[in-house]
Amino acid sequence: MRSSKSRLAALTALVALPTAALAYTAVAPYPSTVTATTYYSSGTYHGAVDVANSRCNYWGAETGVSASVRWNVTVRTSGVVCNGNGSGNQNEAKLDLGSGWSFRQWHWIKTSDSYDRTCNRCQVGNLGGTGNATGPHSHFQKDQYGTKNTSWYSSYTSKGEALDRAELMGYI
Amino acid sequence: MAGAPRYDATTCWRDLERFNEGVSIDTFREWAAPLLASRDPLVRMYLKERLTELIGNDAGRASQVLEWTRDAGPKEFKVFAMALKDSEAVHLPEVSRKMLELGMDVALEPERRAGVLSSLDTQKQLSPDALGKLADFAKDPASGEAGWAAARTIARVMKNDHERSANAAPYLDKLLSIGTQSLDEHVRYMALSTPMETAPVLDASATDGFAKVLTTEGSPDGRGAAAHNLSLSADRAKVLETFARAFEPEQDVCVRWSLFRFSARAAGKDALPVMANMALVDPRFQPTYQDFERIYASGVLDFERVWLALADQDPYGCLHRD
Amino acid sequence: MTRTFLLARALCLLTLSSLAHATETPPPPPALQPETCSVEGLMDSIRRGLQSKSPAYRRYLRELLKESAVTLPEEQLRAAFERETEPVMVEHLAAALVAKTERGESPATLQLVGKRASTDADPAVRAASTRALRRTSAEEHTGDLYSRLVRDASPEVRMEAATNLIEDNQFVYAGLHGPVSDMAVAAAVASSDSKVTARILDNISTAAISKESAEQLHTLLGGDDAQVRAAAAKALGGVPAPEMSRARQTLVALYRGESDVGVRTAILQSLARLGFASAVPELTALRNVDPRLAPEVDAWVRALSTGLQEWSLILREKQRLQQAR
Fold this sequence. Notes:
The structure holds three protein chains of three kinds. By secondary structure, chain A is mainly β. Chain A has one domain: Glucose Permease (Domain IIA) (Distorted Sandwich), CATH 2.70.70.10. Chain A has two helices and 13 strands. By secondary structure, chain C is mainly α. In chain C, α6 runs antiparallel to α7, α12 packs antiparallel against α13 (226-236) and α14 packs antiparallel against α15 (261-275).
């Protein structure tokens, strides 16, 4: 009988899980400053990345993934809101990644571009602060089955850093 | 107010062809300086990939680039560290050893150390010594963001190793020790939540460890992550019992929601009686219970599909707490 | 000292001094200057860059053209595409035109590529244009293009189209978008190339397909080609809830009458997927029908007995358990 160690050593080239095959680059949706990372945040536990720019309703909010993917767009607030209108009212673009993984982008202002769409960094709205927000920003959050995952954020970008549009934020 | 530019014009670099053909590891830093200083994300990604090619499988070149990371500017640093991470040479023992040493060098600022340690994320495995050093470092109250990155590196390498050899136990053990001993909530959460990326089936020891977290961890998010991991325990009966017992004393609705939905991930429709009891304890869970009951009755078995079929995946507003 | 020695010494000194010279004065750095991109300039760079030994550089040039597509003059880009006949250059330009649509602009530029994929006289150009549509929203903007591409006279084009349907399904839509899954099933049915049909059905998610698509899978189970029957059997394992019970009954019945081992293997997998733990008695009952597959039945029973509740994890554990034995 072979030892369990040698059996383990024989385990090679296993089935790749659907999750393992997917790796997309998350990028900044407009020229912005990183105001919260999955490590640093002010106040209570955040578990997400925030990037901000003060020019509310000026910059288009591009979907923050550098690949053609299908976004499910949910509009909960129709008006122009820059500084928050209460938790649960945020406009959302959501990407299903399979195996229960999702990536969400929140707080943008509704425009004529706000509908379900398959695209690579298209604008789904304008930079804004709908929902639970104190100013115009975009909140990016990854989860599996509703549990936040904070590890996607790149260690090479830091809080306070200025990001160009389409600059790397992390890998999802 | 005038509309914002919808697109940024791209930049084409004169003489880039000559750069590409003529650049060597010795000239890279000097030659690349104007490109690194530009606000052109595309050319920076090219530089990262070109540098990875130049490093190749050469320990000396990798060490040279590692030295550059000490004093590089922020955008330069990103290119250097990421190029190292993706290089073949990063798998040479002398290179990974030096990277680990530099990542723990207190002379470096925490964010830089975090970046250096993250360059170890592509390792195929970690030796017991390296694993121990990373775990101790992650638990060190002074490690800050670098400790957070160290916990992530353990989790990432666990995933690599597990895919290749089904080996997760030593990594899980360390993640559990970080998740229970670090004083930093963010580091604990990193350690407690990242097993979800590997999805290992938990043995008895890991099951006991995460079950303990349900009653000892102060952060609701950490307790929720422990429930997530427990849903893949080899001992389903024990997990259902643990979840059932933990539900009533648990005061946070979001953790209750974790115990509730991960009961279904642990045992499928066999979990429905346990979930029904939870809904009796907390009537807010009645509509959600009925939703699960409806989905299982429709013939869906795969938890991934159960999750997608839910009328609301965030019925208690747990995903966004700014 | 002999003359030979002196000559050798002189040569050695000369070599050393030229080496020293080389180390002291490396080539001057290139005069890197930012410039505005143009269609012609980018095309020239790409043509020359194709000779480069650096994959990083070639990838950069391809991405640069794609990124530039939204700000370059569209007429020039279209004209260059229409003029170009070299397949590798067609592919670069086609990818740029498609990228313009993908950034949220009109589908017209993508449709131009779709038209060339189906009408160009050169099969290599049709294949190149088809590749440029991969992992994009093309299926939403090109009508019945894919049902035509999978019937193309060139086997290369047919196979590239199959790859697009598979990769779009997985990477763009995560297997969750019904209309593109239905389109993939329709293309699989439309193709007369059994390799293409089998490859598509073997690799797409059927989690969101319509009743009509499920019906087509049932029809394919009765075909002559064993590869197609196996792929259809596998695809039926992933159908939506309302179709699961019928699929299960059909597959159990089919197993006994089927003689091909590949089809039977696929049926076992689908029964496991459709029933999870409840499939164990069904699988056990089939164990003695084909002794060649008794170990496969046992492997499924062991994997399902882990009690895992996700199909992807059951698949993973089955493979592990088999390899560890």
